[in-house]
Amino acid sequence: MSRAFVKEDTGESLEDLPDRPVSEHRNLVTADGLAAIEAEVERLTAAYAEAQTSADRAALQKIARDLRYWSQRLGSAELMPEPADTGTVQFGSRVTLVRSDGRRVTYSIVGEDEADPAKGSISYVAPLARALVGKREGDTVRMGTGDAEIEGIA
User: Fold this and answer.
1) CB atoms within 10 A of CB 28
2) Would you say residue 89 lies in a domain?
3) What are the respective helix, strand and coil percentages of the chain, to the nearest 5?
């Protein structure tokens, strides 16, 4: 049998983990988002020190990768002020929408790393957020397969 078809142990380890991809967009963050990034860098720094003392090479490699990512995100973070004007949707706004079927949903427009649609926050680069920015109460936007009307902006 040809060696080309035999899987060999290449010795690859977690050291070969690729870096986490970093977004090409500006790293806009809310005050809460910045605090979460700082806390993650702190947590990972402590975890890295702990992994060093236990000589856990696999953990060191994984933690180092995550620490590089979050340190880079912290370094590029642009803290955005809370919106002073609630007349139009902007970064940091909390927007309540009424869908065409009558359901109400509320989303906060936040940075990419802090977005969690299931918990009511969407990234400012998400299609819905892009459609909302600059709109006012009473305006409609496309949401999924239907439309939604902006009921409130906070």
Assistant:
1) 21
2) no
3) 40, 25, 35
User: Does residue 84 fall inside a structural domain?
Assistant: no
pLDDT digits (tens, 9 = 90+) for 34-77: 999 999 999 999 999 999 888 888 889 999 999 999 999 999 99
Dist CA 148 CA 152 (whole Å):
12
Same-domain check for residues 69 and 98: no
Write out the two tokens for 117.
Answer: 């649609």
79 contacts 29 by C-beta, under 8 angstroms: yes
Residues 125 and 72 in one domain: no
User: Tens digit of pLDDT for each residue in 70-81?
Assistant: 999 999 999 999
Of the candidates 144, 83, 138, which has an alpha carbon nearest to the alpha carbon of residue 109? 83
3-state secondary structure of 7: coil
Q: Has residue 138 been placed in a domain?
A: yes
b/e 4-22 (16+ beta carbons within 10 angstroms → b) = eeeeeeeeeeeeeeeeeee
- Supply the range of the domain harboring residue 23: 13-79
pTM, entire model:
0.82
Number of domains in the chain: 2
